[in-house]
TrEMBL record:
Gene3D superfamilies: Histone deacetylase domain (3.40.800.20). The keyword Transcription regulation applies. This is Histone deacetylase. Its cofactor is a divalent metal cation. It comes from Parnassius mnemosyne (clouded apollo). The active site is at H134. Its main location: nucleus. Belongs to the histone deacetylase family. HD Type 1 subfamily. GO terms for cellular component: chromosome; cytoplasm; nucleus. A divalent metal cation binds at D169, H171, D258. Residues 22-312 form the Histone deacetylase domain.
C-alpha cells in the first residue's frame, strides 16, 4: 500500500497529552519539531475521536474509570486517600484535574490510529501521544493512567487475527504483556533494561506467558547502557524468528524514547539509529503497523527521535540542522537533529547476548509446541475477560467493523490536511 501514513493530531490531543505530569509540555514540542520540518505535508493528518466510556471499558474496569471521574478540580494541596491509592493514583501517577477527560482523549488517539489501519486508510498509523504501556485494568501505574495500547490492539483485533506487539521503551511493557499473558493471538516482544531495583522488575527471560499463552511472550532483558549495536544484534536475531513462527497480521510498536542516552529515568545508551534499524525491519514486513510513543523524559531527545522515525516512515531526508521555530532554543547547544552517543561502556557482552538468544530460541519452541492448539481468537483481552466470564461473539465483531466503516465515511471532514 503506497498511501501516505496517517498521523493522529489535533489541538485537544496535544493539549491533553501536555498535561501529563511526567511529560508536561512534551507533546507540543514533538509536534512542533515535526511541523518545523514540514513532515505533516507528507502525512495524512487524522483528527482523533475521544474514547467513550464503552471504548475504555474494553480494557479498564468500570470501578477504575468511575474513580477517575472524581478528579475534577485538583489543587496542589490535594492529599491522596486510600481509594486513590488502590487505583494507583498518587506517587508516580499523581491526581490531575479532569483526568478522565485526559485519558479519553489519549486513548482516543490510539484507537483512531487503529481504526485507520482497520479501514485500510493507510498501512502505517502514528500516534506519538500514545504508548502508555504500564497501565493496568484496575489502575494507573508508572506514569500511565490508561493503557491506550491494549485498547488499540483490541480495536485491531476486529480484523486482524494475530498481532505482534514490540516494545522498545527502556522499561518492560508489563501492562500490555499482563493483558495478553494467556493469549495466543497477541505476541508481545519487549527489549528493556533489567536489573535489580529497576522498574517494573518484571520481564525476565523466563517470563514467556502462562497456560494457553505460554511461549507467546518474549522478553529480552538487557544490562545497563545498552547501545545501538547491542539492540541491533539482539533484534536482528530474534525478530525474524518470531515473525516466521508467529506470522503476524499486524504490528504495534511502542517506541518509548527513554532508552535514549542520558534519559533521566533510563540507563540505556541508544541513539535514534537503534530505533530506526528496528523500524525499518518492521516496515519491511509490509503489514499494517501502528507506531506509538511512550516514555522519554528528556523532551528534546524524544522530539528528535520521533521526528526521525516519522521521516523514515515518510521517506523524507531531514536536514541535520533543526529549523528555527518557537522551540528551537530548547535544542541547544548544538541545535542538531541527531542524538549524540555516549562513551559509557555497554555492559552487555556478546557472550551474554548469545546466551539470551539461545534461551529465547528454546522458549520459542514452547510456542511451536503450544501452537497446535491455536484457534483464531474471537475473544477480547483474554487474561481479564475470562476471569469475569465476559466475551464477545464474532458476529458482533463483524458488525462493529461495518459500523466503523460507515462512521468513518460520514466523518470524512475529520480526515484532512494541515492546510485545510
Ligand atoms: Zn519507560
Amino acid at each position: 500500500m503506497n498511501r501516505k501514513a496517517c498521523y493522529i493530531w489535533d489541538e485537544s490531543l496535544i493539549k491533553e497529552c501536555d498535561r501529563l505530569p511526567a511529560v508536561s509540555n512534551r507533546a507540543s514540542m514533538v509536534h512542533n519539531l515535526i511541523v518545523s520540518y514540514g513532515l505533516n505535508n507528507n502525512l495524512k493528518v487524522i483528527r482523533p475521536t475521544a474514547a467513550s466510556y464503552q471504548d475504555l471499558k474494553e480494557f479498564h474496569s468500570e470501578s477504575y474509570l468511575d474513580h477517575l471521574k472524581c478528579f475534577i478540580d485538583i489543587d496542589e494541596d490535594y492529599i491522596t486517600n486510600i481509594q486513590d491509592e488502590e487505583y494507583g493514583i498518587g506517587y508516580d501517577c499523581p491526581p490531575v484535574s479532569n483526568i478522565y477527560e485526559l485519558v479519553s482523549v489519549l486513548a482516543g488517539g490510539s484507537i483512531t490510529a487503529a481504526k485507520c489501519l482497520l479501514l485500510g486508510i493507510s498501512s502505517v498509523a502514528i500516534n506519538w501521544c500514545g504508548g502508555w504501556h504500564h497501565a493496568h485494568r484496575f489502575g494507573a501505574e508508572g506514569f500511565c493512567y490508561v493503557n491506550d495500547i491494549v485498547l488499540a490492539i483490541e480495536k485491531l483485533r476486529l480484523k486482524f487475527n494475530k498481532i505482534l506487539y514490540i516494545d522498545l521503551d527502556v522499561h518492560h511493557g508489563n501492562g500490555v504483556q499482563d493483558a495478553y499473558n494467556l493469549s495466543k493471538s497477541v505476541f508481545t516482544l519487549s527489549f528493556h533494561k533489567f536489573e535489580p531495583g529497576f522498574y517494573p522488575g518484571s520481564g525476565g527471560i523466563d517470563d514467556i506467558g502462562t497456560h494457553t499463552g505460554r511461549g507467546y511472550k518474549c522478553n529480552f532483558p538487557l544490562n545497563a547502557f545498552y547501545t545501538d549495536k547491542t539492540l541491533e544484534f539482539a533484534f536482528e536475531k530474534i525478530f525474524p524468528l518470531i515473525c516466521s513462527k508467529f506470522k503476524p497480521d499486524a504490528v504495534v510498536m511502542q517506541c518509548g524514547a527513554d532508552a535514549l542516552v542520558n534519559d533521566p529515568h533510563g540507563g540505556a545508551c541508544l541513539t535514534e539509529h537503534g530505533y530506526i534499524m528496528c523500524l525499518r525491519k518492521v516496515l519491511d514486513l509490509q503489514k499494517p503497523t501502528l507506531l506509538l510513543g511512550g516514555g522519554g523524559y528528556k523532551h528534546p531527545n524524544a522530539a528528535r527521535l520521533w521526528t526521525n522515525l516519522t521521516a523514515v516512515v515518510t521517506g523524507v531526508e531531514l536536514d541535520e540542522n533543526i529549523p528555527e521555530h518557537d522551540d528551537w532554543p530548547k535544542y541547544g547547544p548544538d541545535y542538531l537533529l541527531s542524538v549524540q552517543p555516549s562513551l559509557t561502556k555497554d555492559l552487555n557482552t556478546e557472550q551474554y547476548l548469545n546466551e539470551c538468544i539461545a534461551k529465547i530460541k528454546c522458549n520459542l519452541n514452547t510456542m511451536a509446541a503450544n501452537s497446535n492448539q491455536f484457534l483464531p481468537s474471537k475473544s477480547k483481552v483474554e487474561a481479564n475477560k475470562n476471569s469475569t466470564g465476559e466475551g464477545i461473539d464474532i458476529k458482533q465483531d463483524t458488525k462493529n467493523v461495518k459500523e466503523l466503516g460507515s462512521q468513518m465515511e460520514n466523518k470524512t471532514k475529520d480526515v484532512y490536511d494541515f492546510d485545510d
